[in-house]
Amino acid sequence: MSFVADHIANLSPSMTLAITSQAAKLKAEGHDVCSFGAGEPDFDTPDYIKEAAMRALAEGKTKYTASNGLPDLRKAISAKLLVDNSLEYGPDQICVSCGAKHAIFNALLATCAPGDEVVIPAPYWTSYPEMVRIVGATPIIVETSRENGWKITAEQFEEVMSPATKMIIINSPGNPTGAVYTREELEAIGEVAASEDILILSDEIYEKMVYDETEHVSTASINDELRGITITVNGFSKAYSMTGWRLGYTAAPEEIATAIDTIQSHSTSNPTTFAQYGGIAALEGDPQLLIDMVGEFDVRRQFMLKRLSGINNINVVEPKGAFYFLIDIEPMLIKSVNFAEKLLSRMRVAVVPGVAFGAEYTVRMSYAAGLDVIAEGLERFEEFCRQH
Ligand SMILES: Cc1ncc(COP(=O)(O)O)c(C=O)c1O
To answer: Is the peptide bond preceding residue 173 cis, with omega within 30 degrees of 0?
Structure first.
């Protein structure tokens, strides 16, 4: 006899968090662990953001705000979306939540119900399918291929569409693949979605981490039709190294924005008030810090690409965004959890097993770590691959 609801009982805990905590435990015991597990920038939150939050605390900004966030923060987000993303959303179409994770959850609650299907391209961010299940809807997983840069095509989307399809989730730049959709690819997917009134949830949390000449395109900026069916998700965790602040947001058509605000007003209410003041500062601050951080990520990305390309028995696609490599370990004929566990216990190298992302014969390596750790970790990684 279980008191846990049927649709919750089969959910899996977040494996990305599990491996990082296992690696942290080994480190705490004094082991020399090279961790490629992190899902957050290894840089500290910039001082000017911390100072703004401390000032807010000192000034007594410690009470509730509007449940969808401070008007000044929503105004700043609205301005950011226009300048950075060519997106026109008024402050009332924005709901600031406790991280992009919470924002996505609100968006699903507001739009999806039992009987609805949500198309999710795999490899996917580990929480999407579980969130869809929590709201009682059904995830429809579509496998993408390394050959196609780990991106879903409009044709693949069309093939799995059914009268029950309510939404497709597009995450560009993507976690765990680093794949970035081009304008043409988004246009083609958008055309299919629009033809059947299917919503697009566009998770753009890694928008600032794009490399070479790669352009980040916001789905809703492509045309008015797509703006009418897209929920844009973004946040502060990655671009401003503010993972622990728990600050993210949705920007959505009015009707959906109102529903999201209603849900939030009856669940968490506003995200932490003084964190929101940090968010305003982040958006109004000097962009140079962000440029420097992305530059540092790019140095690591290029180093890893060169190094990984020379290792036998694995395959990689050059990631154009985010801060991850998804390594194809299929030639080694070993399941991702076995691979990750052996790699951690024998070589003290932490990676995340691809099964967490719906991609069994892969592992994810994050480059949110210093170059010295990356270089040493890849030496050990190569040795491990050689032994197999
Ligand atoms: C693709 C993707 N979306 C959303 C999130 C959630 O970010 P937040 O820290 O803002 O909740 C993450 C975090 O890892 C992510 O990788």
So the answer is: yes
> What does DSSP assign to residue 267?
T
Residue 83, burial from CB neighbour count under 10 angstroms (0-12, 13-18, 19+):
exposed
Q: Is residue 50 part of a domain?
A: no
For residue 205, the CA-to-ligand 1 centroid distance in Å is 6
pLDDT of 171 over the 70 cut: yes
When divided into structural domains, the chain yields a total of 2
Domain ranges, residue 161: 63-284
**CA 203 to ligand 1: nearest atom:** 3
Residues 249 and 197 in one domain: yes
User: 273 with 212, same domain?
Assistant: yes
Statement to judge: residues 302 and 325 lie in one domain? yes
**pTM of the model as a whole:** 0.97
Residue whose pair of structure tokens reads 């810090």 in the numeric block: 289
Question: Which band of pLDDT confidence, cut at 50, 70 and 90, is reported for residue 24?
Answer: confident
Burial (CB count <10 Å: 0-12, 13-18, 19+), residue 358: buried
Hunting for tokens 């299940």 — which residue is that?
Answer: 133
Domain boundary among 269, 284, 299: 284
Atom of ligand 1 nearest to the CA of 40: 14
Question: Which residue has a Cα nearest atom 13 of ligand 1?
Answer: 39
The mean pLDDT of 217-240, rounded to a whole number, is 98
**Of the residues 267, 284, 301, the one at which a domain ends:** 284
